[in-house]
Design brief:
208 residues; six-stranded mixed beta sheet; two-stranded antiparallel ribbon; 10 strands
Length: 208
């Protein structure tokens, strides 16, 4: 299931996303996973079932392999990189998977750093995936590669996506349009366009 949150800056998208891993607890209402309220699930256990890909990438000093690994075997590292479209650029690096990254991956492009973050999420193999503007700082060419990697990663998982570029959420199962912290429209891409409401206006603004 792929659910997208869209809306103007300050509409409440990231606030909602942060509720799922319990970065803060809600005061009213209920969020459940498989019928279980998340407030009754220990934070560590809850977060182990999720992977989060943010628009700001963070890599540590070490090799490409070590940045993806999470204690997994080399074959799993390569499989995760192939799944998320990172393998081809890694093979072109001076030492491939053993290329040393320093200064938060300063020797890679923004798109390459994001692909490594996505591969890291893939090797964690979580049932729930949270994506917060994962392609917002990427050029169009890189976005196509990253979107391919994300599409592969989201298969068979529950995904909650925050997206500024509406082109990245057209195939979502459900799109929620937020304004001032409230859901004002919901439906598929085509259903929301047919309403000719807020989503339609946002779509027109982006594609004019």
């Amino acid at each position: 299931c792929k659910i997208a949150l869209v809306g103007a800056t300050g509409a409440g998208k990231t606030t909602i996303l942060n509720m799922f891993p319990r970065f803060f607890d809600i005061r009213s209402g209920e969020i459940t996973i498989d019928g279980h309220p998340i407030r009754r699930i220990k934070r560590n256990n809850l977060r182990q079932s999720m992977a989060i890909v943010l628009q700001d990438t963070h890599l540590f000093t070490g090799t490409v392999r070590e940045n993806i690994r999470f204690g997994r075997l080399d074959e799993e590292v390569i499989a995760a990189a192939k799944l998320t479209a990172a393998h081809s650029f890694i093979k072109r690096l001076p030492q491939g998977y053993d290329t040393l990254l320093e200064n938060d991956g300063a020797n890679l492009s923004q798109g390459q750093r994001q692909l490594l973050n996505i591969a890291r999420a893939a090797i964690a193999d979580p049932p729930i995936l949270l994506l917060d503007e994962a392609t917002s700082n990427i050029d169009t060419r890189s976005e196509i590669l990253i979107q391919k990697g994300l599409d592969q990663l989201m298969q068979g998982r529950t995904s909650l996506i925050i997206a500024h570029r509406l082109s990245t959420v057209r195939n979502a199962d459900l799109i929620l349009v937020l304004e001032h912290g409230k859901i004002i429209e919901q439906g598929s891409h085509q259903e929301l366009l047919a309403l000719k409401g807020k989503y339609y206006s946002l779509n027109q603004e982006q594609f004019e």
